From TrEMBL:
Pfam families on file: GntR
Database matches in Gene3D superfamilies: Winged helix-like DNA-binding domain superfamily/Winged helix DNA-binding domain (1.10.10.10)
The keyword Metal-binding appears for this protein: no
UniProt protein name: GntR family transcriptional regulator
This protein's record includes keyword DNA-binding: yes
Keywords noted in UniProt: DNA-binding, Transcription, Transcription regulation
Alphabetized InterPro entries for the sequence: Tscrpt_reg_HTH_GntR (IPR000524), WH-like_DNA-bd_sf (IPR036388), WH_DNA-bd_sf (IPR036390)
Secretion signal, residue range per the UniProt entry: none
GO MF: DNA binding; DNA-binding transcription factor activity
Domain HTH gntR-type residue range list: 6-74
Organism: Leucobacter edaphi
PANTHER family linked to this entry: GNTR-FAMILY TRANSCRIPTIONAL REGULATOR, HTH-TYPE TRANSCRIPTIONAL REPRESSOR YTRA
Length: 119
């Protein structure tokens, strides 16, 4: 369910993002409440609330006072854009740096990726 690599609230926020990307929650859909998440995930309600508030702060969710949390318009695109930047920063940039050291061109990298994809 959760691992020890990162704080639980970050993992829960990422899980909710995955569900938005996967279409489980669409724009304007209500997401589970703090207490529902805490009960279902068997975590402290404060931890669940911290995950939801993180997503609110980033513009992925918004609060309707007295009703609950909802997926914001454009949330899916926002998450996808952030994750694409993450792929570039954490994978592509280091890959290109290593490729330069090895004298590999962009076409060589594309070929290697295509070969790996065929496996």
């Amino acid at each position: 369910m959760f691992d020890d690599s990162r704080p639980i609230f970050q993992q829960l926020a990422e899980r909710l993002e995955d569900e938005i990307l996967g279409g489980i929650y669409g724009e304007e859909d209500q997401v589970p409440s703090t207490n529902e998440l805490a009960g279902h995930m068997r975590i402290n309600p404060a931890t669940a609330g911290k995950a939801l508030n993180l997503l609110v702060d980033r513009g992925v969710l918004y609060k309707r006072r007295g009703i609950g949390m909802f997926v914001a318009e454009g949330a899916r695109a926002l998450i996808a854009e952030e994750r694409q930047r993450g792929i570039t920063e954490h994978f592509i940039a280091p890959l290109l740096a290593e490729a330069r050291k090895l004298g590999l061109s962009a076409q060589d990298i594309i070929r290697l990726i295509a070969e790996e994809d065929q496996k």
